[in-house]
Amino acid sequence: MQIEKVETFPLFYHLEEPYGDANGLKAYRSLFLIRLVTHAGIVGWGECKGWLPQLETQFQQWVIPFLRGKHVMEEARWLPLLQQESAALAAGVSMALTEIKATCAGLSLVDWWGGCRHEQIPVYASFQSYSGRIDWMERSIERVESAFDAGFRQFKVKVGGRTFCEDKKHIRALQERLCEAGEVALDANQSYDVGTALKWNEVFSDQCHWMWFEEPLPIQQVDGYRLLRQHALLPIAGGERLPTTASFLPLLQEGALDIIQPDLLHLGGVESFRQSLYLGRHFGTRITPHTYDGPLSRLYALCAQSTLPAWSKMQGDGIEPIEWDWMENSLNQLISLMPEGGQVPIPQGTGIGVEWDEERLTYLRWDGRSFTP
Ligand code: MG
What we know:
The chain is an alpha/beta fold. Helix content is 37%, strand content 20%.
């Protein structure tokens, strides 16, 4: 079963109003998809993270020539060569190969992996809380309320991009509006030191209904995380940009995190992503994969999560939630998968089990104009 054709789909969506996190505001969202087709006409889609012009050049210049003629079932021999060059490229190719193999076997993704343990997965609405507007706090709270009205009861909002006092005002106002009807996670995008992160205990202690405190510190600061975890009043989450399964080990061995957040697009392949999830289970941490970038990597995260044993016997079926981007982003509607009541049913059809919106794929195709990464 050889790869005959490789197509690229660089997609670009200009935002009506920039939004962002502690790293700054975004004016656009982008997505790079690939479609591999075998000689027998079996199709597999992949998603790659990165700057569109660079990804397109890499694929046209050497990835497509490298992939043409490769045997899908000999992935173990040649995918590591791609992983050595670029984890981002290899992640996308790995997804496409997985879909092709599942489709050939006549199985859904989860059945290819040995079967589903959870038929639906909870999702939390994820926000980019900042904007250039003076009334950004009110706008942020309105967005959370729109997700609440759509059935979400778990939300993640950003901190660390404004002063502590301003962020505190935002979060307290949000909790008051939610009236304890929803749980909130705070994501600082690695913007604090230990002392500043611990100032949040003041807010955590006088309100409840929290989920976790995400990446308060640079993720390399294992000692800082261990110290913070001993004193913080919320579970500490992190690891969305870690590049290998092994890079979770220092944090896990030191007991530095309560929750790990592997991201398939950073981990160079479907198998290393799934290994990271199981590694977390072996260490007894919770696992809530990071899935901000695109709908296909989110679908893989949902399916992989559905195959995990339960984290706890105490909370329903004990499976942790997955991130669901609830910001303005037309790329989110590219596949036919939407949450209902804060849950997403796992697709049962052959392969990835969802349909692509071909018209939207065409409409969102990047026109090649230059833009700042
Ligand atoms: Mg994060």
